[in-house]
Every structure is written in structure tokens, then in C-alpha cells.
Amino acid sequence: MTTAQALKFEAPDQGEETARADLYGLLAALFYAPPPAELLAAIAASSTEGEGILQQAWGEVAAACRQTDPESLRELYESLFIGVGKPDLMLYGSYYMSGFLMEKPLAALRADLDRMGLQRDEHVPESEDHIATLCEVMRYLIASDDALHANLATQKQFFADHLQPWVIQMCDAVIEHPQAGFYAAVAQLAKSFFEVEMQAFDMA
Predict the structure, then answer these.
(1) How many domains does the chain have?
(2) Residues 65/71/73/78 CA torsion (nearest 10 deg)
(3) Exposed, middle or buried, 183 (CB in 10 Å: 0-12/13-18/19+)?
(4) What is the distance between the alpha carbons of residues 133 and 35, in angstroms, rounded to a whole number?
(5) Is residue 150 part of a domain?
(6) What CA–CA distance (Å, rounded) separates 72 from 60?
(7) What global pTM score does this model have?
(8) Which residues form a coiled coil (predicted)?
(9) What DSSP state is assigned to residue 130?
(10) What is the DSSP letter of 183?
(11) Is 2 a member of any domain?
């Protein structure tokens, strides 16, 4: 999993592909664990100028970062996504696509990752269908110099197979949770971004 300090948001005029990769990486960091103070401060201080759905969603995340702190987010993250027993909110693709964790969608994902020479770090407890891991894979497919796998066709196929069937449902679940707070803003940014990605892939 990419560490948070390597991530930053870039405006489209700094390179659309770089901005896409960075936003995937940022979403991975925000969904994987409660953000550290440094990341919260960086987002809070970022530019929110501009128009459009994505920029509006980004402004809401920046505002949410200015209104919270790492300890509060740690407690919120644990209550929403970890909890005791079954979490309030699931971040795993297999759950949304099959109704259960560790099901056939995860097996299909692992087969595709194996074909690309990618595998989960042994120190990461979450299964590969966690939204953070999938965002990290998309970041790699955009930013990597691996011409065999990191190309638009592979991005489109991977997104269609392993993200598109469920990510909007997951985002809506977070947005609609009455206690989601900060993560509702993150989920709205993710939803807006994923919808833009879907439209772009449809036109590719």
C-alpha cells in the first residue's frame, strides 16, 4: 500500500494522467486508514478554486479536513469500517457483488492480479478486493512504466471487472450513513470521480 506522504492532489492542468493517478492514490490512503495530521493539513490547505462536480467534491473534502482531527477520525473510521462483529459499512467488492466476503469475485480478482504480476503485501490484512487496494492497482495501471499492463485497455478492463459493478453502491452507502461525517465527503469525491472515469472509459 502506498504511504500517504507520497500522495497529493493535482489540478488537471498539471497533467490529466498524473492527476488521475494521484487521486486514485489519495482515495486509497483515505479509505485504507484514518489519515495522519500531515495529510489532513495538506488537503485542508489545497486550492479549491474552479468549477465542476469534481472540484466541488474536492472542496467539501478540504473543508471536512479543516473541521476534524486525526484522533476523531481514528474513532470514526473504527466505528464505521471495523466495529465489533460486522462493520456498519463494508469496503470490499466481493460483499457488494455476491453478498458475502471472500467469494468468487475475489478469486477472479486474484487471478487477474496474478496475470499482471501483482500480489498483496503479506503485511496487509485486508483482502485484495478492499477499495483501497483496488484504487492502488488503478494508480499503478495509470502511472507505471510497465507497457505490457499499464495501458488504457487494461485500465478499462480492470475497472469494468472489479470496480464498476459495485463502487457507486459502496459510495452511496457511506454517503447515506447518518454518522459518516468526514467519510461522507470522501465518498462523494470518490463517487464523482468514479462516475467521470466510467464516462471516460465508455468513450475510449
Answers:
(1) 1
(2) 170
(3) buried
(4) 16
(5) yes
(6) 18
(7) 0.89
(8) none
(9) B
(10) H
(11) no
CA separation for the pair 133, 100 (Å, rounded): 18
Asked whether the beta carbons of 60 and 188 are under 8 A apart, the reply is yes
Residue whose C-alpha is closest to residue 53's, from 196, 201, 204, 199: 196
The greatest distance separating any two alpha carbons of the chain, rounded to the nearest whole angstrom, comes to 45
CA dihedral 43, 49, 52, 57 (to 10 degrees): 30
Distance CA 88, CA 142 (A): 32
**Residue 101: which CATH number?**
1.10.3480.10
Query: 151: which 3 cell numbers?
Result: 495501458
In this structure, what C-alpha cell is assigned to residue 59?
A: 472542496
Q: What are the mean pLDDT values of the chain's consecutive 10-residue runs (204 residues total)?
A: 36 69 96 96 89 92 95 96 88 93 91 89 84 96 85 94 98 98 98 96 87
For residue 186, CA distances in Å to 13, 16, 109, 112, 189 come to 23, 20, 25, 28, 5
